[in-house]
Specification:
The chain is built from 20 helices and two strands. The chain has helices at residues 8-22, 28-51, 75-98, 105-124, 128-146, 152-182, 202-217, 228-231, 237-245, 249-264, 266-271, 274-294, 299-319, 323-354, 365-368, 370-384, 390-404, 409-433, 452-470, 473-486, and strands spanning 57-62, 68-72. It is mainly alpha-helical and 487 residues long. It folds into two domains: 1-169 and 185-195 and 231-263, no CATH class; 335-487, no CATH class. The longest helix has 32 residues, at 323-354. A hairpin with a 5-residue loop joins strand 1 (57-62) and strand 2.
């Protein structure tokens, strides 16, 4: 019975979502208290399960070696689950205020809570089949969030999201079937289940790896499968922050890490040159994401293309197949999540308070919303990778990994992309603070920062970004323990 405790962080969000729809709350305040209680409780339960190490393995259903639903929590799963659960708390408080300006709040929070359970399920998956099941469910449970506005643009974006996601999942399924045909084990084992297995057909192994890389790469917005992500910006800002910071894109990256280091292993990937072919897609993704961001005046879309580029950084760390690179990749998985959630929170606050969507309309907004825009500026500097920010730490390790792999081109790509990141983010800060408020004379300008419910999550996560830049060893030490097991 003790082993069933491992299911609590996965199942409790489903119970909370059901209660949210069954209970007739007297007011929005009461409903919001229940939502906060649900998210925080699930975070505490996740910590308890991990801390007390309550039989972190559970066989749920096994029909054969392929159809096997199995839960197994390891250090990588701990990293992802804590990151997701923690950021869900900040997003829930932010959403309580933001969704006052949207309709259908109960439906939003229902799927918002359900998606948390699915994301924890992805983190705790013990084999490829279980990961695939939760991965498909993630698409289904986030779809209502993408089409929340129920406008024509929302339905077009939602359709594109489904087509791309299910298309990618089909590639993964094909790769799984081919893999099973040569090795009847889909379990996640550090250094890979294929390590030491004598497989003569390297070409088939390369095809299987690329199928899975590109299949999971759809949610990770790998070019040319990236266009669903900017299109999904029609969703409310809390949804955008989840899509870009944790739930969807990071699940894609997380799955690629699982396939690369727990199914194939670094040695097998090198032998079949899987990293060489995959890195071509990643290099294009990094540069194209940055270049496309430059051309968009819409703030959320610029941030969306920025996400595409930054996800490429993480995947580059995965594909270099050495310790420093993987430390940098996993560190950037955490850092980018924190930075990007701040940027999207700020974009949402600007829209709520000023109804501004385009960067060209943000002249002087730093005088009206100083706290919001200072947080935006700090997050922007961190994303560029200027020391001593957390973004610099992860990119430093990525550059070291490139040098260790004798791939001088990779550090050059990182430097070029950092320059492009500065080119599309710093002008926003300049426009906000330096040109001045239109028509400004000497009169005092009213402070239009959002209220404490929206501002507190923005400031708090910005503080975490700063702290992790100054004291990065808290995360690095844990990530090093993960990497030692894999390489």
């Amino acid at each position: 019975m003790k082993s069933l405790f491992i299911l609590i962080p996965i199942l409790m969000p489903f119970i909370f979502a059901l209660l949210l729809n069954l209970i007739k709350f007297k007011s929005k305040k009461t409903r919001n208290i229940f939502i906060a209680f649900s998210i925080i409780t699930n975070f505490i339960l996740t910590i308890c399960v991990l801390y007390f190490d309550i039989n972190l393995k559970l066989e749920i259903l096994k029909l054969n070696d392929f159809i096997d639903i199995y839960i197994n929590v390891d250090k990588l799963g701990v990293l992802f689950s804590i990151l997701a659960s923690g950021l869900w708390i900040f997003t829930s408080f932010y959403s309580m205020e933001y969704m006052n300006y949207e309709k259908k709040e109960r439906r939003f929070f229902t799927f918002f809570i359900l998606t948390l359970g699915i994301t924890i399920g992805i983190a705790f998956s013990g084999n490829l089949f279980t990961l695939y099941i939760f991965y498909e469910l993630l698409t289904l449970f986030t779809f209502p969030l993408v089409i929340h506005a129920e406008s024509k643009d929302a339905f077009i974006s939602g359709r594109k999201y489904l087509i791309y996601s299910f298309g990618g999942a089909t590639l993964v399924l094909l790769g799984m079937i081919l893999l099973y045909s040569i090795h009847h084990d889909l379990s996640f084992i550090p250094r890979g289940i294929l390590s030491g297995v004598n497989i003569e057909n390297n070409q088939l192994m390369l095809i299987i790896y690329l199928l899975m890389f590109l299949g999971f790469g759809v949610k990770a917005a790998v070019v040319p499968f990236h266009s669903w992500l900017p299109a999904a910006m029609v969703a409310p800002t809390p949804v955008s922050s989840l899509l870009h910071a944790v739930a969807v894109v990071k699940s894609g990256v997380f799955s690629i890490v699982r396939v690369s280091y727990f199914i194939f292993g670094a040695d097998v990937i090198k032998n079949v040159n899987g990293n060489l072919y995959a890195s071509i897609f990643v290099g294009i993704t990094i540069l194209m994401g940055s270049l496309l961001a430059l051309h968009h005046d819409n703030l959320k879309k610029r941030l969306a293309y920025s996400t595409i580029s930054q996800l490429g950084y993480i995947l580059l760390g995965v594909l270099m197949l050495n310790e420093n690179a993987l430390i940098g990749g996993l560190m950037h998985l955490v850092n980018h999540a924190l930075i990007k959630i701040v940027l999207f929170f700020c974009a949402g606050a600007i829209y709520v308070k000023k109804h501004i969507k385009n960067i060209s309309d943000m002249k002087g907004i730093g005088k009206e919303m100083p706290i919001t825009m200072w947080c935006f500026a700090i997050a922007s500097i961190s994303l560029i990778g200027i020391p001593p920010t957390n973004g610099f730490v992860s990119k430093w390790y990525l550059a070291l990994g490139g040098l260790n792999a004798n791939k001088i081109m990779f550090p050059i790509i990182l430097l070029l992309s950092a320059f492009l990141t500065a080119t599309y983010l710093l002008p926003i800060v300049v426009i906000a603070f330096f040109p001045g408020y239109p028509g400004y004379k000497d009169e005092k300008i009213k402070n239009n920062d959002p209220n404490i419910k929206m501002l507190f999550p923005i400031v708090l996560v910005t503080g975490i970004v700063v702290i992790l830049g100054i004291f990065p060893n808290v995360v690095i030490n844990f990530i090093e323990k993960i990497v030692i097991e894999l390489i």
